Every structure is written in structure tokens, then in C-alpha cells.
Amino acid sequence: FYDEAHKRHENFPPGPLKLPVYGGYWIILSKAYKNLGLATMRLAKQFNTKVVGLYLGSCPQVLVNDPELVKEVLLREEFDGRMDTILGRVRGGWKKLGLFFTDGFFWHTQRRFSLRYMRDSGFGRRCEHLEEAMTQDFKELMDIVKNGPKNDDEKKIINGDLIYLPHFFDVPFLNGMIYVFTKSSLPREKYPMLWEVGRNSLGFQRCSNDLGGALCITPWLKNILPKFSGYHDCLERTATIKQFFREIIQDAIDTYDDKYERHFIDSYIKRMRQELKENNRTTYSVEQLEMICTDYTFPSGSGAEMVMTFLIERMLIQGEIQDKIHEEIDRVVGFDRLPTLDDRCNLPYTEACLREIMRSDTLVPLGIGHRTLTDTKIDGYTIPENTSVSVNLMSLHLDKKTWGDPENFRPERFIKDGKLDVGLDKSLPFGAGRRLCAGETFARQGMFLLLAMFMHSYHVSTVDGKPLKSRSKRIEGLISTRPEFWVRITPRNQSVL
Ligand code: HEM
């Protein structure tokens, strides 16, 4: 037992013992059960290293806990793989599908194709049609607030002057994605479907953690503890989102005409058929198209909304932030129209608040795990091929040398001479390199647009009217989330409706 616990690859980074079955997994959790970023920092301190090495079961796992090394790993190609885990397999019906959990030629081809098409639809540059669609959805929400919900589904999200976060923001983000895929969005009668996708997106994010959870180390847990291990949620939540897209894709296939390329789904089908005809084989398939739609959709229905929710929670703790955003929006936009993305460069404080919340409240603390594609080195240590490598983005976002006062929420740190200076933003909430978040532009622009419209239209307070004393406990999942909650909104600037 002693020998086994101390057995390590040669020159592997220092770290905890390899205990039976789970290796060092429970040791990390014991450092900070609900906060793997903090746990990583504590392990790094304990072993006096920037790179921690341990084993999850028998699989080598490296945790990188240093701002410079984090960037290095994200930028070096030999770290670009993804582990082949049960989590990824369950989602794809035991096949390796989608974008998040695939790698190599398949991932590269599918990511490049989708982003090449979606580049003009708000994923590379601004898309006015997408902005109009998201603005229209926001106006519908304002209408529900003003005139009251029409049914029980609406009441679950908007009830009098109370709104339910983060799901209040489901409609514009998810309908936005549907617009990107199909060039049309769902009308108000179908919003309950979007709320269902939103609930499942958030549920999926909570089915595991940044290290894959116990299920990835001991997949047999799916048979004996399907609910507790997260297996059930992973399967069911993804199945619901996939089913939602299956119907949209089937409809596109049924009405497909080679001569007209109506939208992304058509162009994907076209490429699939072309490649099959010419080469008799292809990485394109209807199943993969379902997974692509799912992989772009669930972060929209959870991640981007959670960042906005974190920021609203911060405003309920530090009331002056809300006052400053209101002051800026009123001065720049006025009272006769809603803000647009044209206003972004003139609303530096509002934009800085989004950047500061993503720095101070890291959404994906250990990023999405990478895999080494070959034997390699980091900080002098040897990392064998097929090692899972996670970068602790919190080690960068809370680094004292980089930020001076990382513990303070201070959007002004990004503002110089009254203007936003993006050069001052050293945070990497979306990662970097070839695995950079595929939705960064969509997320940044969507969050800004919705935040600006929301703050232009409402004052926000707690249900009991008292300021919050502190942030709520985070739920550690694939991303960090806070529990859903109701907040009170008081209309302002309503003449735009
Ligand atoms: C504020 C919100 C968001 C944050 C902070 C965020 C952050 C991240 C991070 C850290 C990664 C992993 C990067 C890596 O592997 O090193 C990632 C991957 C990804 N994100 Fe996001 N994300 C957000 C929103 C979105 C949205 C709205 C979408 C889609 C519309 C999206 C789509 C993706 C995809 C497809 C990947 C996988 C990329 C790949 O493996 O090639 N994300 N994101």
C-alpha cells in the first residue's frame, strides 16, 4: 500500500498521495470541498510548487497554479487535447461528439466550420439582426413585467415586481442562439420551451465538477448511484436539449432545398451531403449537428446568464455600483431609447463592471480540463502523454502582483482617463489559445447589451429591501453558480416601451 501510494511518474510535479481507488481526489476536496480553485491554491502552497501533480484514480492529473504558466499551457499546442471521459461519452450516446469534449482532426474541423459560418452572426463580429432579435425579446420581457404574466410558466419567472434569476435572462440568450442557427426566433407563446432549455442547461452544469467528479474516476457509479453521481442529470439534461434541437434540425432536413442556404443548419447539411458524395466518409453527421447546437446553447443558457446574476448580486451588496451604472447610462443614453451596442464604447463603467465580475468571481475556476497530446514539460517537470491538465484561472484572477488589490470589486481598475483600457484587463475568463471559448464574442456582446438595457429600465433590490451582506455560497459544478433567487425590480425610463 505504501509503495503504491508513493508511486509516481518520473519527475512528475509534487502533490498528494495516490490513495486506493480515487487517488488524490478526496484530498483535493478536503482542501476546500466546494471550491476547487481555492483547493488548488492550498495544495500548491502546501507542496511549495506552481504545478501540482496527483492521480485521479490511476490517471495523472496536473493542476497549474501560476499566472504565467496558466497562459503558457493555454497557448501550447501539445496541451490542446480533451480527456475521453464518461461525461463526454454519455452526452454523445457513447460516441465522441460535440465541441467541448472532442479533440484532434474531428474537433478542429467541426469547430472551424461552425465558427466560420457563425462569425458573421455575432460570433466574430457584431450582427445587427441578432441584436434586434435579442432587443425584441427583452422588450417582450419588459411587457410581461409591465402588464403581468399570462400563464403559470411566465409566473415562474416574473411575478409582480419580482424576477427569478438567472432564468429571467434565458429568453434573449437562448432565442439569440436559435436565431444564430435558424435565422428566426421563438415567439412569446413558446418561451416556456426556452425556460425548459435554460433549466436543463444549468442542471447540466451542476452535474459534475471541473475535475469530472467521482463519476469520471469510477464510471461504475452510474449503475449503483445514478442520481448522486451526476450520471442521471448528465444524461437527462443533455437529452432534453438535444431533443429540442432534433426537432428543429428534422424540420430543416424535411424542407431542405440544395439551391437555398437559409441558415447554419442548412449549410451544415449541405457540407455533410457534399463530403459524403465526394469522399464517401465525413466528420459531419446529424448527430454531431445536434451536439454542436447543444454545445453552443447550454453555456448561453447558463454561463453568460450566471455572470450577469453574479453582477446583480454584487450590486445588491455594494449599492454604489448600481448608482454609478445608472448615472452613466442616463447621461450617455438618455431616457428616450434603449441602449444598443453602439453605446458600448461610451459606457466604460458598465463594461468594466462585467469585466470585473468575471475577474473577481471566476465562472470556470479550473477551466475545462485539457489533455497532453504527447510527453512534454512544464516548469521543468515531466508531464506524460494523456495527462489531464487543468489551469487554475483563479490563480491569475486573484494574483496580488497582477492586480494589487484582487480582493476588492473595483471596475475602475480597467478605466484610464475616463475610457475603458482593455490593455489593463489581464484576466482570461474565456481561456486562450486554440481552445479559447468559442462563444466569447457572443457572450461579451450579449451580456453588455442585456445588462445595459436591463439597468436602463430597472432599479434592482432584494425582496426584503435590505442590502445583501455577502455573496451566496457557490455551487461547484462544471461552472461555478449561485442558487436561483428572486429579486425585486422597480421600473425606470419606461417611455421606450
Ligand atoms: C461569460 C460566459 C462564458 C465564459 C466565462 C466562458 C468560458 C469558457 C472557458 C474558460 C472555456 C474553456 C477554455 C479551455 O478549454 O481552455 C470555454 C469553452 C467553450 N465555450 Fe465558453 N464561456 C462563456 C460563455 C459561452 C457561450 C455563451 C458560449 C456559446 C454561445 C460558449 C461556448 C463555448 C464552447 C463551444 C467551448 C468549447 C471550446 C472548445 O473546446 O473548442 N461559452 N468557455
TrEMBL record:
One GO molecular function term of this record is: steroid hydroxylase activity
> Which cofactor(s) does the record list?
heme
What residue intervals traverse the membrane? Answer: none
Gene Ontology biological process terms, A to Z? organic acid metabolic process; xenobiotic metabolic process
Against InterPro entries, the record matches this protein to:
Cyt_P450 (IPR001128), Cyt_P450_CS (IPR017972), Cyt_P450_E_grp-I (IPR002401), Cyt_P450_sf (IPR036396), Cytochrome_P450_fam2 (IPR050182)
Task: Give a Gene Ontology cellular component term annotated to this protein.
Answer: cytoplasm
Where heme binds, per the record, is at: 437
Q: Which UniProt keywords apply?
A: Heme, Iron, Metal-binding, Monooxygenase, Oxidoreductase, Signal
Q: PROSITE patterns annotated for this entry? A: CYTOCHROME_P450 (PS00086)
Keyword Heme set for record? yes
Q: Which family does it belong to?
A: Belongs to the cytochrome P450 family.
Q: What is the designated name of this protein?
A: Cytochrome P450
What's the source species' lineage? Answer: Eukaryota, Metazoa, Ecdysozoa, Arthropoda, Hexapoda
